Amino acid sequence: MTVPFQKYHGTGNDFLVIHADEHVPDRGALAECECDRDDGVGADGILFLALEPAFTPPRVVMTLVQPDGATAPMCGNGARCAAEWAMRRTDADSVMIDTQAGTLRADRTPNGDVTIEMGTPTFDPAAIPVDADGPVFEAPIEGLEVTVVNTGVPHAVAFVDDVDDVDLEGVAPPVRHADVFPRGTNVTVASHDGSGGFDQRTYERGVEGETDSCGTGAVAIAVAARRLGRTDADPVAVHPPGGTLTVSFNDRGCATLTGPVEREFEGEVAIEPPAES
Fold first, then answer.
1. I need a surface site. Which of 24, 54, 174, 197 has the fewest CB within 10 A?
2. Known active-site residue 75
3. CB neighbours (10 Å) of residue 232?
4. Are 115 and 235 in contact (CB under 8 A)?
5. For residue 192, which of 150, 139, 236, 156 has the smallest C-alpha distance?
6. Domain boundaries in the chain?
7. Helices in the chain by DSSP H: which ranges?
8. What is the pLDDT of residues 84-105, one digit of tens each?
9. 33 included as an active-site residue
10. Which listed residue (33, 35, 75, 81) is catalytic?
């Protein structure tokens, strides 16, 4: 048995998109198999999307299953890809995305990019969660000086002189698995780009490696940089390896994430039937 998929990416953060109505008995197992870049299609996750076109604007329910088989509550670039998928199917320029981190609005910009609301970031230790008595700002954790923030998922952000000089695969895993993070964390490093923005690299929880882009990480950089007085810009340009993202803030303190989305190709993946008992 096979199910159809479409492949999307937002600044290099790539996903298989499968309609939630398709029968997939074990979504985690499928993600572990098909996200593998050697033996599968290759992706940073699978988006299972359910479209509800009767609403105005249309709604899409998003479930992201990561390469380790676990479900992530939020992904900025994944939500932007989900929005593009839904906009194409409904001929709309705005959609609502239902995620485990809340319902978010997405809009197409005049130049064809997609903007997604990212909610209100928080430094509250209980909301991240991190085992600390108060907000964690530039504190040493497993060899990195990090600021910890939740932008839909937790991020430990370290500002460095040059992101290209960081052995991310070496320094990130101890922080990602540090005891102070009961559910783990993403690890993001950032450096000034010389023009008021920041270069970015992120080691993603669930992917267990560096990705070409991370939307929640880009927001984490902008939020942390503003809180620490490293920038007062709005919008803030953030440059992961896969392209450029723009983070803005409204008068309620909510962040938005803007960048391009591309549909790459479509195909089918095999679904293993459940084992007989």
1. 54
2. yes
3. 9
4. no
5. 236
6. 2-118+261-270, 125-247
7. 27-34, 76-90, 168-176, 215-227
8. 999 999 999 999 999 998 999 9
9. no
10. 75
